[in-house]
């Protein structure tokens, strides 16, 4: 039986471009070897710490609402270093951003199939983006020489995080490497993020929008997401054609897609950068947005009765990434399940919407 995996040698120009947009080549540099399977295993240090039950240092992703100036400066330095790498280095910011174009504008065919490989609108959405951030974070950490360095998560589900974080803001950030000129100017801070963004949300007051945000969170993680297939999205198996929005899980639709569109520039083709697949990851805020989405997966799983999909076609689906040493590896969707094995966790911050009764 075939496993759903991208065929790196099949790389072609992106498909599914917004009308009026000129396509560009986002194929990853092809390695001259067969990528080995990378499986997360507890590090020696962790194993020892467990044995001796000593306290170990942990990699903790901080909330943007609690990140201080020295953390922000360090994050900026990491991106400065990443942006300074030659553009053909797979760890460079350009290549990191192009990963999104490659998997989202379907530049690869599925291995042993004539169908293209698409990670959105299906149950691959969570595990793909978790692995994407995993390697992205390790590359940043290695550039900084601090293996405990962790990405921030934009906790827009909390009133304190409901605007573009100050260190990413084009208006207030002293760090140009964290801002992006292609965002909606009217949505820069102090505008309130609309987690249910649509044409009508533009005229809402802060108070009303905060209530709707709580409502959106409550629906995406609780009310509408008790069944795993509603939360994760539709099954996507070898030789399946990609789906459209109907395949999305609750969180992928809202707040994920809506926050992308809310950040992107309304006057630009395809709401770029954040609102369009091929350019979204050129905005550094993309990674903080996706760390938040990744955290929502953990929050959902912590609710009694919720567990990850164990279907073989999900567990064995594969992705390809360059690691922090510039080596291409294969990873499995099912191996993204356990954060202890992946070696990071999220700062515990309040989730007021959990107790929201609509
Ligand atoms: Cu690959 Cu935020 O989508």
Automatic annotation (TrEMBL):
Cofactor: Cu(2+)
Species: Ceratopteris richardii
GO molecular function: catechol oxidase activity; metal ion binding
Parent-record interval covered: 38 to 395 of 563
Keyword terms: Copper, Disulfide bond, Metal-binding, Oxidoreductase, Signal, Thioether bond
Positions of the Tyrosinase copper-binding domain: 120-137, 283-294
Family named by the database record: Belongs to the tyrosinase family.
Name of the protein this chain belongs to: Tyrosinase copper-binding domain-containing protein
